[in-house]
Model the fold of this input.
Amino acid sequence: MILTYLVVWLLTMARSWFVAICGPVTAGFGAIATFILTDKFITKIKYNKIHIFLIGGLAFLITDILYFTFSNTYNKTPIEYIFKVEIEPATLFLELFTFWHALVGTKLFLTLSKV
Done:
């Protein structure tokens, strides 16, 4: 998943439209892959692939909205503004991972709790 985000980020640097179109798609596919691997290697679960895809894509869209809002208002990313840190590789994808893991992880937890 981290490698996928890195590829998306690198392609975004080359083409700005790429992140708006392919970012939510890769985040959605990453969410589906998480559920598929859980189903295959941990325990059998029932899930709706479209619903999981939308949850993963939503995390990316929330991050995009925050980035655009904070960048236009404060000329900083949300992490730079809230925590007063400079952007660096260690915090590069922090917002995206936070929202992705919160949304997809919560859905996975709720799905596993039904088993």
